[in-house]
Amino acid sequence: MDLAITLLLALAVASVIGTVLQQNQPYTDYLIKFGPFWFEVFETAGLYDVYSALWFLAILTLLVISTSVCVIRHTPGMLRDMWNLRTHVQEKSLRAIHHNKQWKVASSVDVTASELQGKLAQEGFRVKQTPKPGEILVSAMRGGMNRLGYLLTHLAIIIICLGGLLDSNLPLKLAEWRGSLKIETRDLPVSQVPAESRLAIGSHAFRGSINIPEGRSSEVAFVAMRDGYLVQDLPFRVEVKDFRVEFYDTGPPKSFETDLIVHDEALEEPLATTISVNHPLFYKGYAIYQASFSDGGSGLTIDAWPLDNRAGNNPVTFETKVFDNRQMHWGDQSLRLEMTSFRPFNINPDPTADEPDRIRNFGPSMGFKLRSNTGEALEYLNYMLPLEREGREFYIGGVRTSPAEEFAYLYIPVDDNGEMTEFVQFLQRLHNKKLISEHAKEMMQITLAELPDHTIELEKSLESTLTSLVTMFMRGGFTEVTEFIDSSLPEAERDTLGPAYLSMLREMLARIYFSVFDNNDTEAVNDARLLFLQDAVDAIGSLSRYGSPVFLLLSDYNHVEASGLQVTRSPGKRTVYLGCALLIAGVFLLFYLPQRRFWALVKDNGTGSEILLAGMSNRNPREFDIIFEQVTNQLQQTSGNSNSR
Amino acid sequence: MTQIAGTINTETSRPLMQWLWRGLILMATVVLFSLYSNVLDEYEIGIVVLSAISLVLLGQNWPGFRGHIVIVAILSLFAVQRYGNDLASGNTDFFLSYLLASQSAFMWMSALFVMATVAYFSGLLFRSEFTEKTGTVLTWSAATMGMIGLMVRWKESYLIGADVGHIPVSNLYEVFILFAVITALVYLFYERRYQTRSLGGFVLLVISAAVAFQLWYTFERNAHEIQPLVPALQSYWMKIHVPANFVGYGAFAMAAMIGVAYLLTSWRQEKNPQGLLATTMPELVVMDDLMYKSIALGFAFFTVATVLGALWAAEAWGGYWSWDPKETWALIVWLNYAAWLHMRMTKGWHGRYMAWWAVIGLLVTIFAFLGVNMFLSGLHSYGTL
Ligand code: HEM
User: What ipTM, to 2 d.p.?
Assistant: First the structure.
């Protein structure tokens, strides 16, 4: 008994560990979190999968054994107690019972006893008379089922644990331990997974998952085990015809649904059905759940707009798919493009967080990584449609160096045709050395024309300053220019010359921007163009942080979703449910069906009978005070005259 | 009739009253079915029938509860009628905006619970039976306003959108109100049965704490906004799993507060047997017994709730048991009280140790209720803090 309580509490404490330490995470995460030493210690202690650790199972086993022993030991007594009316009670013992009462009646022993029996039976008691010399003992009991409560609850614990054992992954652990099963940790196509990591179709329990893109099917599921997986063969093929997500108007998902077709030779025709969250399919002892969803390799058509003169002058269109990896060559740069995600719509607050409260649809977006030859990668999130901001439109693309950061956004102004063309052309002009030096010369001449006497050196130096300001700006944006000012100008001149440098740079940029427009067109310089120029300059200024030689703009897509299914077999389920039903029945019997016993010893006292009534209950001693009084009153009423003492 | 604290009130209602009550509930059920037969599925029909039976059983011999239900029904229907089809009436209609719109009702509930706490304690302090009775009335009113608020909020969610509508037990904010209301009702049940008003202040203290938290949650986090249900919660199971859990939580909370009262009283009895607490609180055995009763009640409902949770998980999460943190903590709470009950039933433990254990039990329960949402993540994180 003490052992059982200790085990109960030990189980509680052990369970705490499993909730505090997140279970079944990738092992590398644990390694990073705890360091190599503690990682090893915790792994040995089985803390990454507490609930199937040996010691945890040992506690459970001990609990089951101890409860079984307890049930076996107590059952005979309980059963006896349930039925036995205790007809061999001595008068002395009755007087020793706390609740007792005595009174006299005029009727004979037989009559009185029968009357008492009838009355008690009316109150719902089971009653029996036991005649003895000169007296009759009337024994009565109610709520014998209370004892059944004990049996049911404790049996339930055993049954639930056994059912749970049927559904546990203990057999897999054993097989692994014996060496007949090996957890696969490599990322392999299913067909190449070796036999020792495959689970044949059988009656064992498992919980597997699969991602099936729309239009595809699968005959296996993957069972996650520690830092790897096993492949579970299925006796049927699951095809995903269509996957749908519906959204509430405010954005959050409302429903996930998959149209499934189960192909099985045993079926006359394939079984078509729709599953959704809370509505799984049960088939042949397997359950198929809607668990998640992801991209199923959507087809993407992308225009790569050059941001760097080495990457060419015109957008290059190419086709790819989500989850495709390919080596891209842009100019002299070679980068690995890893397409990671696609979303057909983004109903959320402004991704650039300017208006966090306004939720709307920002259209499709794609996520990808660009990995350099040294293995470093930047992560990008580019939106397909322009975003409106203060009446102007921008293509936006986010960049970050690690998932822990927020995206930083690049805003590329959209031209009158709704394209990036004007921006990219401006950018190309800014990369054109010859053009820049022409403009530098022109601007130098205009500036110096106002100075009557100036030397060749001044001309040369101003021209080269103008050129290098633009070059610096193109390389590192305003940051680099300011850094240059701070580091190269003497402190005394910095305050006056600094702003002058910046305005010269701006003028150069403006000259180059407007150079394509007709000089005689007085309308060429208007507010819209000035704003465009300003936006373009801002964008160019942050290109160095964007870190990509091209801007990938999604131009078309073919959305393919993958439904994340969970396939399970739990042969112990019914057993567990049976246990649960017994548990509930047992608990209520235990607490709310008190067992009550009454004895009335009826003795001949010459003129009539004398009654000694005693009663007891195994629950609620306080309530029994009242019950006892009520029963006594009932009994006394019928027996007519009462002179209790 | 004078009532003696701690004695059992076995008063039963007159048979006529009982029949009237059964008839009323039957009628309400029939009307409900005839109005909504087209939208109720078989599970929901089962839930309605079970609720009706529970109402009948609870109300048969408990006049206060009958009154509570009738007032809740009348005022909720009135509020629904004032709303019509327009959620905006909540701000323009006098009755709604000052009394019955869910937010207003919850504010009333909060104020009344705090007042009830004060009343119970003042009654205790000044040994005024009248003031304590005021506490009872205030507690009833608070529970009634809370229940009306929940009912009206249910309607409001449908006014936001037919697809948004759901029973208001779906997130931390909503279940906090449920907790306050259910704890109050459980307490009121035992208060009537054991005539122990002096425990009121103690029990109401947890409720007031819950109310304080819920107010903070409303004003700081805007938690009161009605959110649509995530797909995993769209199930009839929610209607029974959550309330069953909160009967458990409420009863455990009450047991713990009785434990506190027990500990204080027994301490004062030793220090100063003629002092206030020592002379006004119920006898220690009564409190001990009540503590057992409410833990037993809580344990029974918690068992049902956990089993229901497992059944639901088998439909929503891919298995009846996933060792999800919430699930696991429910098991921990359950194991803890199982151990408590064993000690009491088989070893006859009682008194201070058990009172301490009941108080610690509440801490474990609170962690299962709030701590899991705050510190642990899992499948079950519907109400995050
Ligand atoms: C997971 C394991 C167990 C659980 C959840 C459990 C649960 C319960 C519950 C809820 C009660 C009701 C308390 C009451 O009597 O009112 C109870 C009673 C009892 N349990 Fe256990 N129990 C467990 C294991 C054991 C074991 C291992 C033993 C014996 C070694 C045991 C012996 C008893 C006894 C003797 C009673 C009292 C029955 C009575 O007189 O009414 N239990 N148990």
Answer: 0.88
